[in-house]
Amino acid sequence: MAGVLYIDTSFTKIVVKPVHPTFGAEVQVSDWNNLDDDAIREISSAANKYGFCIFRNTGLDDKGHVEFSLRLGDLDNMKRFITGERKLRYPYFELFDAGNIADDGSLLDPESPRGHTNRLSSTWFPEYFKNLDPSKFPMARHRLAQIHEGSGRVNLYVGAHLHHIEGLPDDESTRLRDTLNKHVTQPKYVYTFHWEQPGDIIMWDNRALLHRAMGGSFAGKYRRDLRRTTVHDDSASAWGLNDTEGATGLGYQLTAKTLDTPEVTPATSTAAPVAVTAAS
Predict the structure, then answer these.
(1) What three-state secondary structure class fits 246?
(2) How confident is the prediction for the chain on average, in pLDDT?
(3) Do the bridges between strand 25-28 and strand 52-55 make them parallel or antiparallel, or are there none, so unpaired?
(4) Would you call 275 helix, strand, or coil by DSSP?
(5) 234-280 pLDDT, tens per residue?
(6) Which residues lie across from 226 on neighbouring strands?
(7) Keywords assigned by UniProt (predicted)?
(8) Cβ neighbours of residue 165 under 8 Å, at least 6 residues apart?
């Protein structure tokens, strides 16, 4: 793979090749159908060390994707989003649809209601959140600098979602927030991942990395069939400085170590799956 720097020989069950001077690695697994516990531990260790892992041409189907993810931790699922007559395209609640394929298997029109809904984060969300009652939906509080348990590194907990920094005047808080966000998004700290074939997986650690979709010429023209699983954070900093009992507005559901199969008929689709695993 272009950009691979060397082989990390500290792993024995998997082959790990860094793809960037400071983070990220391509991981080769000899047999996805026979991953033993030692291999899973090494994959987790590689994710902790490098922040994200790329797995090429895994050959995993939906069931294999979910089963692999379950071995990394408890999974979020789609149940809370399934209302009315909506049906899943996939046979497991743990798979989140991150593609551009409509419920009937056709290409999603970016100008359709669902296409516009996917872009609400940049239009409607700011206006909606501005009117929320902070007494009912208090802001979550997290440490700006956190110890990443898996590696011992100190991470900055920043991003576009950061509202303000406690203890600073608004203008100073905004300046510091913008300075930190500009620092962590310098080109030398950015890696762009490209899908190459069906079965590619990228697994990244939300506790250590920022991520964003890049867009592209596929919108409205080409099928983009992506499935994502989300592993919940089990570290001491998972809830930040917030009351886990009184947390509001979260509403997530966990799948713990067993597959959760809905009664659905997946839409007919001839495109082979490309999967994303987000370790959060």
Answers:
(1) coil
(2) 81
(3) parallel
(4) strand
(5) 899 898 998 776 444 445 555 555 556 543 323 222 233 333 333 33
(6) 274
(7) Dioxygenase, Iron, Metal-binding, Oxidoreductase
(8) 144, 173, 176, 177
Total-model pTM? 0.82
**pLDDT beyond 50 at 162:** yes
Contact 238, 189 (CB under 8 A): no
Distance CA 71, CA 69 (A): 5
Helix (H) or strand (E) segment spanning residue 227: strand 226-231
With contact defined as beta carbons under 8 Å apart, do 32 and 60 qualify?
Answer: yes
Radius of gyration for the alpha carbons in the chain, expressed in angstroms and rounded: 20
pLDDT at 157 exceeding the cut of 80: yes
- The residue to which tokens 């509001």 are assigned: 248
Cα 111 versus chain centre, distance: 25
Given a contact cutoff of 8 angstroms between Cβ atoms, the answer to whether 204 and 27 are in contact is no
Measure the CA–CA gap between 103 and 83, rounded to whole angstroms: 14
List, for residues 195-215, the tens digit of each pLDDT value: 999 999 999 999 999 998 876
C-alpha to C-alpha distances, 274 to 2, 97, 118, 185, 202, nearest whole angstrom: 21, 11, 19, 27, 10
- Percentage of residues of the chain with pLDDT beyond 70: 75
User: Residue 25 pairs with which residues in a beta bridge?
Assistant: 18, 53
pLDDT above 60 (res 76): yes
Residue 44: its H or E element: helix 37-50
Beta bridge partners of 124: none
3-state secondary structure of 191: coil
CA distance 145 to 163: 15
Do residues 90 and 101 touch, judged by C-beta distance below 8 A? no
